[in-house]
Amino acid sequence: MSKIKFLLLPLFCFLLSAAPTRAGEGMWLPQLLQALNEGDMQTMGMKLTAEQIYSVNQGSLKDAIVHFGGFCTAEVISDQGLILTNHHCGFSEIQSHTTLENNYLRDGFWATNKADEKMNPGLYAKFIVRIDDVTKSILTGTEPGMTKEERQSVIDRNKNKLTANFKKESYQEVEIRPFFKGNQYFQFITVSYPDVRLVGAPPSSIGKFGADTDNWEWPRHTGDFSLFRIYSDENGLPAEPSADNIPYKPKHSLPISLDGVEEGDFTMVFGFPGRTDEYLPAAAVEQIMVVTDPAKIAIRDKALKIVDGYMRSDEEIKIKYASKFASIANGWKKWIGEVQGLEKTNALQKKRDYEAEFTRRLQEAKKEYDPRYAGLLPEFDKLYAASAADAKAAAYQSEITGRNVELLRVAGLMRRLTSAYENNGEAGYNNFKARLNNYLTGFYKDYVPAVDQDVFAALIEMYATDLEGKYVAPEVRTAVTNAGGSYADYAKNLYANSKFTSQKAVAGLLAQDPKAAVEAMKNDPAYKLISAIQDHYNATTAPAYDAFQTRVEEMMRLYMQAQKKVYAEKTFYPDANSTMRVTYGQVAGYEPRDAVIYKNKTYLDGVIAKYVPGDYEFDLPKKLLDLHAAKDYGRYAEVVDGEEKVPVCFLGSNHTTGGNSGSPAIDANGNLIGLNFDRVWEGTMSDINYDRSICRNIMVDIRYVLFIIDKYAGAEALIEEMNLVHPKKGK
Ligand code: ARG
Ligand code: GLU
After folding, report:
1. Cβ–Cβ < 8 Å for 27, 576
2. Does residue 517 form part of some domain?
3. For labelling, which of 22, 43, 196, 641 has a CA lying 20 to 30 Å from the CA of 283?
4. What was the pLDDT predicted at 731?
């Protein structure tokens, strides 16, 4: 080894350790595992070949992986099309079959036979048939100097041509998606089954145990699962929901291991992660940390406190707002964890170091690289610094008008209805109105104007006082002045005078002929307010902010390409984009704080220890308490220090994100060992900067799922159709 290389070695090692690919990190494309990961996975203990995970010629693991409704993952666990996903993924289906007499959300649901399984029109299960690189065909004809629109139109044309020419079966679909910020394109051939029936779900006190208090937390004790079944026509092909359909016969179903997991065991999670941003420049990460996350957190802080106050004092409000609260709190808590995690792991400094090295390499090898690379980082710094105030205004705008104030959200929809009328006449109006009516029925069922009015008063005050003056619509100032400076009085006036707070008034309004309805809507004070806020934003913020985003998108394409060239020794994985991925790691506890060590597994004893009778988050069904008291665990326990215990959840270093809910955790032999449903709070920044030391995904141990199905629900027939194995005992 030459001396100079020897001197560089420590630096090189340092760089490798700061590199974006380490065991645990990465959401890999299944068709590229053979080229990129197989060796690494086998070194970590995997006994499978890449061909057994993804094959286009024979059944492989990928044929058991389902995109569930497009928002979650599920997996096939029997040769009769039985699939497993999370309780929170099946929540709205479970809710839709729930009535006062049959409260499946509260009590659970178990189909006693196939005829009892419940259809869910609109829900689908999608399989991936094959994945191919189509970059060349898609990018043919694009040129460096093109505008965003020009480039997109060339790409769209190429896409259409490719899709039209592709020879496929009539029941298959072709999807073409960009990767690495548009530097690469892959084509997915898929098959979607639209008859997916509810088979079983535990009561919420098991499936949602710990609710929002435990969400994103470890130690965790939630049995977050539900069961569905895919149906097909008699030839095994997709068919609309019908009593004539038969259970789908899969190409592969996952065997289920009863052997359990130990620290260090190889794990792999297969699924459809939604979105990550691992390759951002430091300037962008800084904006997330100091501008946009804090803005969104501050708004939701206020809104959640108000709603929580009402939910605690009023049973009816608690029910009406439970689901909305959970979803707003889910993002809020994640962002808090994300900012803390980025700080704790020095993400910004790491990015800066990475960029300094990037710049150094460019300077050293100037001629080899595209000359535009050198200008990227300085321009990112400049653009992000200049856009900070706009970014905050944009975050406020979307959180306040699009998410947290329900009246403004409805007013925004009314505005779209009037635009539909103005742009597309009565046909456009009627089309939008039909969809709107659907939405409004659900909306008013759970709407309490008094709660929303308080949220409005608090958030409109933030809008008027936190943002720089130029971002605030003058109409809002005037209205507050007219209310004597009181935001509460302003809110009271608005909610007393807007028709949109009342389902009846809105129904009356929409019953008129379109012209009169549009007129009446436009006179509503909430309509006037949303128009003022939106128009002001469009006039003052949108032009510059949209231009910033367009420019950044263009630069990110180049920066992504540059990172891959300049850090040629690294293996890059594309950001998540709701396409099929494999991530792998190990069963692993972690150290969340100084001197605190989290073990990798929880047990039923821990569930019982959290039990609070009658509580809305920590109540438990009597049957579960009885099984525990009698230690009636069937074959689902493991022996810990001479005592039988039922495992509940465990941790791994697999790199997951939203959309991986319901994903299977698979062992070294390809058997199902768990069901992914969450990440730990300290590690939610893995979407931006994965760090092996504190990023963990949370899975339900498959033996807890089986224990609940078998011992709690007594649904033995379901257990019988599964394939239970004992790999450690060689069975
Ligand atoms: N944090 C998980 C996810 O991001 C679970 C969310 C559902 N559970 C809840 N308590 N809100 O989707
Ligand atoms: N609960 C998330 C989901 O629904 C998974 C947790 C995460 O974001 O990693 O997809």
Report:
1. yes
2. yes
3. 22
4. 60
* 686 CA from centroid of ligand 1 (Å): 16
Helix (H, G, I), strand (E, B) or coil at 83: strand
| pLDDT above 90 coverage of the chain, percent | 92
Catalytic choice (653, 661, 663, 686): 661
- On the question of pLDDT at 15 being above 70, the answer is no
Q: Which residues of 101-140 are buried (b: 16+ CB within 10 A; e: fewer)?
A: eeebbeebbbbeeeeebbbbeebbbbbbbebeebbebbbe
Q: Does one domain contain both 436 and 468?
A: yes
If asked whether residues 232 and 364 sit together in one domain, one would say: no
Do 145 and 239 belong to one domain? yes
Q: Is the CB of 678 under 6 A from ligand 1?
A: yes
Q: Verify whether ligand 1 is closer than 6 Å to residue 216 (CB atom).
A: yes
Report yes or no on 650 lying in a domain. Answer: no
Q: How many CA atoms lie within 13 A of 526 on its CB side?
A: 29
Q: Confirm whether 686 is a catalytic residue.
A: no
Instruction: Please name the amino acid found at residue 20.
Output: P
490 shares a domain with 411: yes
| 67 within some domain | yes
Q: Could you tell me the distance, in angstroms and rounded to a whole number, from the CA of residue 518 to the centre of ligand 2?
A: 41
**pLDDT tens column, 408-437:** 999 999 999 999 999 999 999 999 999 999
Looking at the fold, whether 155 and 232 belong to one and the same domain comes out as yes
Q: Total structural domains in the chain?
A: 3
Contact (Cβ atoms closer than 8 angstroms) between residue 653 and residue 695:
yes
Residue 265 belongs to a domain = no
Domain range for 206 is 56-254
State whether the beta carbon of 658 lies less than 6 angstroms from ligand 1.
Answer: yes
For residues 413 and 492, membership in a common domain is answered with: yes
Q: What is the pTM of this model?
A: 0.93
Coil vs helix vs strand at 603: strand
Q: Is 78 in the pocket of ligand 1 (CB under 6 A)?
A: no
pLDDT for 412:
98
| Residues 182 and 289 reside in one and the same domain | no
Q: What is the mean pLDDT of the chain?
A: 95
- Specify whether 497 is located in the same domain as 558: no
Give the residues surrounding ligand 2 with Cβ less than 6 Å away.
656-661, 677-679
Active site residue 96: no
